[in-house]
């Protein structure tokens, strides 16, 4: 397999930006290319989602690109980790040389959580679940959380600790939406307005504007570019069910399969991971994912996340995550941007010491799609 590396990574403006989704994508893309020492004319591969049915076509036109390879697979928040796999394969097959993966959304500015796309009526959520009036997607994650607490005898405080650790990191990140909000306590998470039992508002991700982008190319070329190449060590994915009513076990998320495939390809283990970036749409997403990826035994993630904040033994979601940093609809690409920066040693006060191997894991839908990417610093 051709060795491929990330050579550029950046975000757009975040928060309430006054920009369109395409403007945010363009801003992130040009910043990532500048970070790589490249330009738009170097890009011949493009992967993107979130701006309509023909996302790659629209973004390519907006950026003035005529790519030889594109991907616009719509799989929710895990799509961007999936794109990394496809980009590695496309570069290895000679279909393209330089892949731009980008995303942008103005959900907060537009006062919507909607994502573009075709919504079919004949799906489990509509035919079997909608009559019960669930809030999409939180009621589904709440259902998983309630089952988790019952099955393992854990408490809501274990969920809250995820949000507390995320806020601690956000206080060290000037770009985080909650950077100036002050510390968050377990008691404050528990006392926040209940949205869908057992999840309060503080258990839920933010709604912000924002965009992100990364640039990939072959490792032999990457070694001649300005930044330390961040090599793709391994990747894996899994798809489960579109609706909770179809799941054989709502705590079996598919992350275990995705992680197992990625770790096998990379020939590393969870013990080798120095810093982890895990999708945190809700606090329960993190607990389920950490256990599925093998960082701890089932039911034990509540103890692990007590070490997830700054100075802890398990640096997790070091931007502040979707809970305190940003969350513009789909967060998977921001996980990759931070993993790259951590491995380069660019994170200042929030830097994980000695980071050589990083994990980024995306989750899409209602625990429906899962994708893991393992990255390593090439310092030779």
TrEMBL record:
The keyword Transferase applies. InterPro entries: Thiolase, Thiolase-like, Thiolase_C_2. It comes from the Bacteria. Residues 236-376 form the Thiolase C-terminal domain. Keywords: Transferase. One of its GO terms (molecular function) is acyltransferase activity, transferring groups other than amino-acyl groups. This is Acetyl-CoA acetyltransferase. The keyword rRNA-binding does not apply.
């Amino acid at each position: 397999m051709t060795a491929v590396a990330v050579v550029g990574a950046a975000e757009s403006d975040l928060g309430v930006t006054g920009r369109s989704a395409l403007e945010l994508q363009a801003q992130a893309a040009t910043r990532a290319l500048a970070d790589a020492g490249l330009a738009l004319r170097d890009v011949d591969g493009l992967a993107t989602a979130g701006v309509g049915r023909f996302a790659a076509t629209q973004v390519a036109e907006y950026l003035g690109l005529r790519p030889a390879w594109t991907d616009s697979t719509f799989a929710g928040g895990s799509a961007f980790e999936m794109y990394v796999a496809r980009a590695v394969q496309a570069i290895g097959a000679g279909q393209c040389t330089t892949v731009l993966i980008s995303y942008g959304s103005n959900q907060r500015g537009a006062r919507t959580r909607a994502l573009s796309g075709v919504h079919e009526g004949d799906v489990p959520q509509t035919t079997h679940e909608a009559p019960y009036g669930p809030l999409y997607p939180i009621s589904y994650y709440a259902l998983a959380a309630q089952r988790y607490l019952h099955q393992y005898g854990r408490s809501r405080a274990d969920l809250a600790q995820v949000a507390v650790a995320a806020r601690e990191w956000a206080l060290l990140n000037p770009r985080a939406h909650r950077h100036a909000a002050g510390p968050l306590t377990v008691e404050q998470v528990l006392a926040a307005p209940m949205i869908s039992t057992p999840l309060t508002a503080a258990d839920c991700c933010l709604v912000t504007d924002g965009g992100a982008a990364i640039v990939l190319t072959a490792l032999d070329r990457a070694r001649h570019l300005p930044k330390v190449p961040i090599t793709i060590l391994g990747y894996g994915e899994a798809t489960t069910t579109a609706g909770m009513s179809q799941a054989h076990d709502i705590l079996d998320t598919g992350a275990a399969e995705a992680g197992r495939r990625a770790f096998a390809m990379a020939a590393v283990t969870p013990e080798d991971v120095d810093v982890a970036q895990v999708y945190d749409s809700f606090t329960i997403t993190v607990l389920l994912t950490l256990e599925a990826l093998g960082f701890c035994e089932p039911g034990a993630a509540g103890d692990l996340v007590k070490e997830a904040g700054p100075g802890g033994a398990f640096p997790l979601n070091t931007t502040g995550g979707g809970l305190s940093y940003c969350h513009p609809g789909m967060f998977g690409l921001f996980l990759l941007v931070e993993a790259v920066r951590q491995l380069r040693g660019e994170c200042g006060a929030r830097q994980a010491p000695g980071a050589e191997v990083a994990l980024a894991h995306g989750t899409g839908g209602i625990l429906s799609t899962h994708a893991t990417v393992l990255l390593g610093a090439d310092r030779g």
